[in-house]
Amino acid sequence: MFKSLSLVAASALALAVSSVQAQSAKFVLFGDHNADGQAQADADKFVHPVTSPYFHEDSFVTSDVRAWYVYHNFPGKVLGGEAHVAALQVRLAITQDFQLVAYKDGYTWLNADAIDQDGWNDVGAGLKWSFLHDYKSNFHAAIGAGYEFPFGESKVLQNNEEFRFWASMNKGFGPLHLGATGNVFFAPDSSQGDYLSWHLHADYFLCRFISPVVEVNGYHYFDEADGAGPASGIDVSNLGGGEDVITLGLGAEVRPFQEIDLSFRCAYELPLTDETDLYGWRLTFSAVYAF
Fold it and tell me: In which domain, by residue range, is 100 found?
């Protein structure tokens, strides 16, 4: 417990120490950056998703690095204990419209009733196509596809070889920015379940220093795995089945610096559903550096 509190405290201190992230990449592998995206006013720029980092993807083609730390508390009625996840995501603009997304990796420390396992996560990567970016109306849309490579340790419960397909939309109304993302996941192995997830996002530009964020995440299994259990923790402990899970995340992004594209974010997340699941509550911390 002391270890988890120390990690949370250290991450909270980091929040006190970030310009608004550009909605297009400054570094583009082939071609030039999007001049309209770079010229956007700060109040028109979206906060990148904060919660559900493996699944929640917005519609923007950027080049950035995102460091994550998640503290997840399991409900005692199902599986008491906690999990810690540390990960580093990389996004690279190939052109103005295409982005390479390395969305999953990292290490998981799991300390729960009858389960005490640590290990490396699988590696997930894919390609995003932003087929619509209208900066005049601040409306954007993208689709993407990815694959989770089974490079991690099998004892980690959320390591599942799978194909992922997603679509996203984002619309700005002045300082208010809304977004929606949907994913479908297909496992080549029948021992893993097929499922979908959806994610809603809202942030509001209060000033150049801070934007509050509200997000809702939903998960549903439509094809359970062989021998699936009655509960699922989705991204932190995927057991191949279980009841629907819907969560609410409340957080903020802070940006103390104007000279560099560095932001710090945090969110507290809790379940809105009361079915049998492994979602107790969660703290998510991340830092985003855009280049």
Answer: 2-290
Decide if 88 contacts 123 (C-beta within 8 A).
no
- Look up the pTM and report it: 0.86
Angle subtended at Cα 208 by Cα 142 and Cα 250, rounded to the nearest 5 degrees: 65
Distance CA 61, CA 89 (A): 14
Q: How many CB atoms lie within 10 A of CB 128?
A: 27
Structural domain total, the chain = 1
**Which CATH number belongs to the domain containing residue 202 in this structure?**
2.40.160.40
Stretches in the chain below the pLDDT threshold 50: 1-19, 227-232, 238-240
User: Taking Cα atoms as reference points, which of 105, 49, 109 lies closest to residue 74?
Assistant: 109
Smallest CA-to-CA distance from 185 within 241, 227, 226 is with 241
User: Cα angle at 51 between 199 and 161, to 5 degrees?
Assistant: 75
pLDDT, one tens digit per residue, over 89-102 is: 999 999 999 999 99
Cα–Cα distance measured from residue 46 to residue 135, given in angstroms and rounded to the nearest whole number: 12
